[in-house]
Predict the structure.
Amino acid sequence: MNEVTEAMHGFAEWYGRQPIGVWSAPGRVNLIGEHTDYNDGFVFPFAIDQRTAVALGDRDDRVIRVASGFAPDAVEIHLEELAPDAISGWSAYPLGVAWALGELGADLEHVRGVDLYVASSVPVGAGLSSSAAIESAVALALDEHWGLGFDRPTLAKVGQLAENRVVGAPTGIMDQSASLLGEADGGVFLDCRSLDADVIPLGFTADGLSLLVIDTKVEHAHASGGYAARRASCEAGARAMGVESLRDVRHDDLGRAAELLDDETFRRVRHVVTEDQRVLDTVRTLREQGPGAIGPFLDASHVSMRDDFEISVPELDLAVATAQAHGAIGARMTGGGFGGSAIALMIDDLVPVVTREVLAAFAERGYREPSVFVVHPSQGARRDA
Ligand code: ADP
Ligand code: MG
């Protein structure tokens, strides 16, 4: 049973009637461009084939109710009462989206309530953005059901606003953009300053390549603290360099940065500046030479995150090193860091070998068994039924 049928079944079981529609949105893998989004830089993620589905039914009153296979209880709230402080727990994601639609200009005074049921195949907390998947699915479902007519870039902002203000996570716009704008076989090349997005063919399948995800299952308690500290370093670096954001620091300015900044701040800045360049190089190389040639940028990105930005963990380093040692074209940790997943690009035939070797390497170190699986660049949010 996939997430769409699961959502329909769950809805019928929970609410005792059939839904009037089902929408879904994918998780994402960031191919390259880490911690660049909140620095107004470039990112290059793609939507994956793991999705979160939302079944929707209408109501006669102004109550909005959400249930999920993820949690035992349904949560309901009157549309008038929607406010960041009034919503918490997992329901902050779907109900936060309803609130954020209003914040971005939807007239919610004249809409009726809805019942929602959420089902998902996106692993939670693995760095594949189950949060953006649920936000984007709910945003598209409510937009279409309520006839709001928001475009997808605006729906991405809705999800981000929900996550920033209601969930309370200071994340950028990348995840929601990938989930809403992704296409089969396409990467979303996003300029986080202008919000211009270009879908670039990845050509993995045509070239016989697979993208393997290694979910280390490591989740560090200081992940959110570490994320906030990195953001603060980036802001301090930009201030000291006299620019609005690190997007404005060019490669040639790094010498001046080294003189101006303390060593730690300099290394944070250097990661962001070089990572922006690696995104541009990856996109250009993909266009000119195809996906088999992008490996060095993935590898260099990992080194930069490990040594300059210091957001890797031993499990991620081991996953990357093992994949590289057994023939991967390129590999890196992906997502915010301090745990989560690594990715490795390789020819299809190597998938069983690398999987086996990664599992063996983790077992040998006594690390928790990782989850290793192939993801396919997939279509973004859509209506399924
Ligand atoms: P990630 O986005 O890396 O998976 P996050 O901590 O950002 O991890 O988001 C995970 C949270 O999103 C979960 O703890 C839960 O609150 C919410 N969530 C994700 N998927 C679902 C779902 N299918 N049903 C209910 N809540 C979900
Ligand atoms: Mg998330």
Remarks:
- The chain has a mean pLDDT of 96.
- The chain is about 40% helix and 25% strand.
